[in-house]
Design goal:
With 109 residues, the chain is mainly beta. It contains 1 helix and 10 strands; from the N terminus they run E-H-E-E-E-E-E-E-E-E-E. The protein has a single domain, classed as Rieske [2Fe-2S] iron-sulphur domain (Rieske Iron-sulfur Protein). The structure holds FE2/S2 (inorganic) cluster.
Length: 109
Amino acid sequence: QTNTPASGEWQTVGKAKELDQKGQLLVKNSPVGNVLVVGTSQTGNLVAVDPTCTHKGCTVDWKADAKKFACPCHRAEYGSDGQVQKGPAEKPLKTYTAKIEGDSVLVKS
Ligand code: FES
């Protein structure tokens, strides 16, 4: 048995209250790894990705105005679907499905 949860299982990564305060929730070393959830508990379709840039591993930031993720290191950009919009990254960010249940934020891969 490893520490990695079976994929496809919902994992709690934080509180809806924390998500609502900033409109995003960054959790390092959650049960699924690093995860960045974007939205609020009122958002129908929450966006959730592994914010680890696929170029060299920096942590990307969510740019709410542009609705994209931007890497501070070499300026790669990804859409809210995790797809690369601008290099030097070539591979998409890993994405998760996210939902609110009670006062918890859950994701699954
Ligand atoms: Fe993100 Fe290089 S580490 S663009």
